[in-house]
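Support reply, case 0932

Customer input (verbatim):
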Amino acid sequence: MLVVIVGPCGSGKSTLVELLQIDGYTARVVAQEHSRVPELWRHGGEPDALIYLDASPSIITIRRHNEFPDWLYDKQVRRLSSARAHATLYLNTDTLSAADVHSRVRDHLGPPGAKPVQEP
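Our regenerated output:
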């Protein structure tokens, strides 16, 4: 099962990928937020699951220990619009710990090798 994780900077993508890989998933981050290629998330193969992690600019500022301006967040969200529209799971991580995000994504994916549940 190929799991692709997208989202703005500081939303928890890298942490989630590390945890999923430990669990045995084939998971990778796609830096869609930095690309003008609308469907960069599809490069490398159509994912079985596309997870969109989100966080507000104020939380991203805290996590990154530097100012994350609204204009940059808005730019990244625009670049992520195709991924957001095709995501099998959307999670706002503002109030979630890494363990909470991991648990919710694992619930969505099921065991490695299973087909994930499609969410509206």
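We compared this against your earlier run and they match. Two observations from our side: The longest helix spans residues 98-109. Helices lie at 13-23, 57-64, 70-79, 81-86, 98-109. Please reopen the case if you see a mismatch on your end.
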